[in-house]
């Protein structure tokens, strides 16, 4: 009897094939999960703009409908002046530079020339306000004289006149005002002065005027910085700035009435140490939770506008999640409560109100931690696993709860870091309009002059007269609390 052919479907081969397919399926499932997460990350990145991230509004695509950036409720009224609101018009000047009496013209019905009539000036007045810009040259001449004893005497030019031709404080002040406050490029500022006043200036001359102003303002700006160090609450922020073709950082330390700028090649702790102000600051520092600021000896308060944008991004990415919306509502409610308390003259919120906010805060973030657990490395692996943005946000909000809610426990602390962001907006605009700084000395001079002008602007002090006094050697000192 013939033997049956040998079979290849032995039990051990089937088990091996099944094991291989299961491993392949597991590997494919892992790859699919990674790809899906990568797709979600890319979609979230594409969906970010100024309302759900720290990207500036200027980066928003023009074809996309602008997102709402304000939490204010619409009043229902039309824009502009409302019906029956009190109007305002410019008052007449009592001492005009010129007066013109309009003469009588034409013939009377009787045929007499009206120009021959005796006239009386009527009380009604009308005035035209205009602007006249002109060059004014002052020439200095020295004299000589001989005394009766025969000795010859000669007068000397004032010490400020060191060259045959130079520019006065009024022109220098206007040039610095245009370039450092109105943020016009040097070439366009020179063109403007040439058109209006007929004074031909080179852009290099305007650069020199800016550096001269910075040298004269070094002492007042240093005093501004030391006054900020003594403040109870201060704001800090930084932004990138191109200097000599390289990326540097413009740092700002400010209050509602003081501003101090500094340019440094670094962004982190090395820059803060190099600038030297925050080492002595012992008040409450409001910032956007940049890690370098946490190394300073100050108390800290985090900007909640950043948190709101991150929470909005999470809520839009996964509408099923409820905790981001709940935390947004809680932060806004707490902010409204602090605003109302300050308006009522309160120094602190009532204890039960504060405790209620903290209890809800902890409960909401506990839910967030449940939905976004920490990613752990595979067994036996020591490599660091990248966490999700949601987990990182929840962990930061829980770890730094006191810094996030500082505005609730101390009414001197604002809800956000908008003060510093506003102070950085104009220097950032200068870079967009005028381009980068070609030398570190120019960037440092701009930071010094802009510190002084921003401080005067906050204190409602006229800038141009102050710059004129600066070039006369007597810069007005701003009020230092």
Description:
The chain has 15 helices and seven strands. The chain has 481 residues and is α/β, with parallel strands linked by helices. The strands form two sheets. The chain has a five-stranded mixed beta sheet, with helices on both faces. A two-stranded antiparallel ribbon has the order 1-2. The longest helix is centred in the first third of the chain and has 36 residues, at 11-46. It is elongated, with a radius of gyration of 35 Å. It has helices at 11-46, 169-181, 186-197, 203-216, 218-229, 269-275, 304-317, 323-343, 351-371, 389-399, 401-404, 406-409, 418-434, 440-458, 463-471; strands at 144-146, 152-154, 233-243, 246-254, 259-264, 284-287, 299-302. It has a domain at 304-375 and 386-415. The model has no long low-confidence stretch (mean pLDDT 89). A hairpin with a 4-residue loop joins β4 (246-254) and β5 (259-264). The chain starts with 10 loop residues before the first helix and ends in a 10-residue tail after the last helix.
Question: What are the salient characteristics of this protein?
Answer:
Transposase-related; 15 helices; 481 residues; DUF6444; Transposase_IS66_central; Transposase
Poorly predicted segments: none
**What is the helix tally?**
15
Secondary structure: number of strands: 7
Q: Ends: how far apart?
A: 114 Å
Strand order of the largest sheet: 5-4-3-6-7
Q: Which secondary-structure class do the elements indicate? A: alpha/beta
């Amino acid at each position: 009897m013939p033997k049956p052919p040998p079979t290849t479907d032995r039990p051990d081969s089937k088990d091996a094939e099944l094991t291989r397919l299961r491993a392949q399926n597991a590997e494919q499932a892992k790859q699919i999960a990674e790809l899906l997460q990568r797709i979600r990350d890319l979609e979230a990145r594409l969906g970010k703009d100024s309302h759900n991230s720290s990207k500036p509004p200027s980066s928003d695509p023009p074809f996309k409908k602008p997102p709402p950036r304000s939490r204010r409720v619409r009043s229902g009224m039309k824009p502009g002046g409302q019906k029956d609101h009190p109007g305002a018009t410019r008052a007449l000047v009592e001492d005009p530079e010129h007066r013109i009496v309009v003469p009588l013209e034409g013939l009377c019905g009787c045929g007499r020339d009206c120009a021959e009539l005796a006239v009386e000036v009527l009380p009604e007045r009308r005035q035209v306000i205009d602007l006249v810009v002109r060059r004014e040259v002052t020439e200095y001449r020295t004299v000589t004289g001989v005394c009766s004893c025969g000795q010859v005497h000669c007068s000397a030019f004032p010490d400020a006149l060191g060259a045959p031709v130079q520019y006065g404080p009024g022109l220098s002040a206007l040039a610095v005002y245009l370039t450092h406050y109105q943020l016009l490029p040097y070439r366009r500022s020179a063109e403007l002065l040439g058109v209006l006043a007929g004074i031909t200036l080179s852009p290099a001359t305007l650069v020199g005027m800016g550096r001269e102003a910075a040298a004269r303002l070094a002492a007042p700006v240093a005093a501004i910085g030391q006054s900020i160090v003594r403040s109870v609450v201060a704001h800090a922020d930084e932004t990138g700035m191109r200097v000599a073709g390289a990326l540097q950082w413009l740092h700002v330390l400010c209050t509602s009435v003081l501003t101090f700028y500094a340019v440094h090649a670094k962004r982190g702790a090395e820059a803060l140490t190099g600038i030297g102000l925050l080492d002595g600051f012992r008040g409450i520092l409001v910032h956007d939770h940049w890690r370098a600021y946490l190394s300073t000896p100050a108390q800290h308060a985090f900007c909640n506008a950043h948190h709101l944008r991150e929470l909005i991004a999470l809520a839009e990415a996964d509408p099923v999640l409820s905790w981001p919306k709940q935390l947004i509502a809680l932060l806004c409610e707490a902010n409204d409560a602090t605003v109302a308390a300050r308006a009522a003259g309160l120094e602190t919120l009532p204890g039960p109100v504060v405790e209620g906010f903290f209890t809800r805060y902890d409960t909401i973030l506990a839910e967030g931690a449940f939905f976004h657990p920490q990613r752990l490395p595979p067994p036996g692996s020591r490599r660091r696993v990248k966490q999700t943005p949601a987990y990182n946000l929840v962990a930061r909000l829980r770890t730094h709860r006191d810094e996030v809610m500082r505005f609730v426990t101390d009414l001197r602390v604002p809800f956000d870091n908008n003060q510093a962001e506003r102070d950085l907006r104009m220097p950032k605009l200068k870079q967009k309009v005028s381009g980068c700084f070609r030398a570190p000395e120019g960037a440092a001079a701009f930071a010094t002059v802009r510190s002084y002008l921003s401080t005067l602007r906050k204190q409602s002090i006229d800038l141009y007269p102050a710059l004129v006094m600066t070039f006369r050697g007597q810069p007005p000192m701003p009020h230092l609390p």
